[in-house]
Amino acid sequence: MPFELRPYPNPTLRPEGEYLQKGWAQNVYPLAERLGVLIKLPQVSPQPYTHLAHESLLFAREHGKANEYNHAVMIAFFQKSEDIGNIDVLTRIAAEVGLDAREFRKALEERRYQDAHRRALLHAYEEMAIQAVPTFIIGSRRLTGLYPKEVLEQVINDELARQK
Fold it and tell me: Which pLDDT belongs to residue 7?
């Protein structure tokens, strides 16, 4: 589900700022190291708005490439510091995963998925009251933040047992 921490017109953060520097140093980098994940604080400043990246994922989903496209966008942003708010960057990524670049770009320029994206955000913000990522809703339980795999498994098992 798409979720924007700072949707337009709210200002996005700057990677050189204390908030992101401190948060990444204290939380993201230690977790990434424990999990063996290569990640770095993207140096695009200010950080891009992500509505086009979310809208473009809907195009990729319609064309059977959602997982590949999503992964490539994450690599572009969190490993290569590319501006995923830029339509040229997104179009290049789409072509790299086998999507029709011309049709992809046209869909984004026309904002073909804008309404679907807006509905998904409204669902997240208003109906589901999501305020942070990640948020897991498992049965009647809501977990916000990062949890070990074992905790998530236990919550799933508890909810399955409760439903029997």
Answer: 86
